[in-house]
Automatic annotation (TrEMBL):
Family annotation (InterPro entries): aa-tRNA-synth_I_CS, aa-tRNA-synth_Ic, Rossmann-like_a/b/a_fold, Trp-tRNA-ligase, Trp-tRNA-ligase_bac-type, Trp-tRNA_synthetase
Family: Belongs to the class-I aminoacyl-tRNA synthetase family.
Catalytic reaction annotation: tRNA(Trp) + L-tryptophan + ATP = L-tryptophyl-tRNA(Trp) + AMP + diphosphate + H(+)
Subcellular location: Cytoplasm
Major enzyme class: ligase
Function text: Catalyzes the attachment of tryptophan to tRNA(Trp).
Organism the protein comes from: Candidatus Uhrbacteria bacterium GW2011_GWC1_41_20
Keyword ATP-binding annotated: yes
GO cellular component, one term: cytosol
Binding site for ATP: 18-20, 26-27, 154-156, 193, 202-206
Name by which UniProt lists this protein: Tryptophan--tRNA ligase
Location (main, coarse): cytoplasm
Sequence motif 'HIGH' region, location on chain: 19-27
GO biological process entries: tryptophanyl-tRNA aminoacylation
Gene: trpS
Amino acid sequence: MSYSYSDPFPMRVLTGIQPTNVLHIGNLFGALIPALELQKENDLYMMIADYHAITVPHEAHALNESILTVAAAYLAVGIDPTKTVLFQQSQISAHTELAWILETIAYMGEAKRMTQFKDKSGDKQDNVSVGLFAYPILMAADILLYDAKNVPVGHDQKQHLELARDLAQRFNSSHGQTFVVPDPLICKHGARLKSLTEPDKKMSKSAASAKSYISLMDDPDLIHKKIRSAVTDSQQLITFDESREGLYNLLTIFSLATGRPADEIANEYIEKGMKELKDNLSEVLCSYLLPIQTKMKKLLGDKQELTRIINNGSASAKKVADAKLKEVKKKIGVIL
């Protein structure tokens, strides 16, 4: 069955990813692969959240390349731009315009309670950008512009979605039914892959050491090195036990790359030892990533076509966003 942007779908879903640094397997299994299932049954909007990426210092050329890389990754895993609206946030001015309107009804106390801001700013809250403080409100605008009923979020973003819900309900209460109040879709597995070097922390593309994650574009030798050096523990037997954080993480990756239950894999290696498990996991992961890497390289080799796909998706998203913004502006009394 083929779809166009105007075809009816049962439910609209919005998801997005920041084009920062590098994409890793946590992004792959936590966001990109689950999006394929969402694409099958929903009106899926996938956003390249480039305005969110500039809340911290960045290099312009690197951001430009990252935007293309994120688009290539979406397409390489199977996102179909004739079924899914793949768009670039910064091409649609309604995002920042609605964010300002929502900032006028958001409370300072709400923004200060956002744990992501506390974590990222640490003890330097007076010296970080206002954008880092306010970006959950921009995220709310991203969601509410498209009447998205469901938004896939990791556990660390659930608080931001709750803010979007609060703002939607507050605006609706004051100005009449305008926004769909969104519900979270929590990914139970891949979204919570852990660092290879610090398995008590989430795998992150902003980590200080590249050894802590597997990039989508890492070559086989590098993947083998990173898996071999992954932190586990001194116990000999292989068991699927969440308290053994490093091993649990490796078995989770093994499961995601093969589609086999993690406890079944653990039983297979129970007496074989950590070295054999790591070596085999490396081989499995290299095989899994190879076709994705091949497709990404091909897509990035034709940046003109990749840009065309992004621009087309952005034009389609802009029609929806502009219509919602016009409705909001009429409700608040600024359209004469």
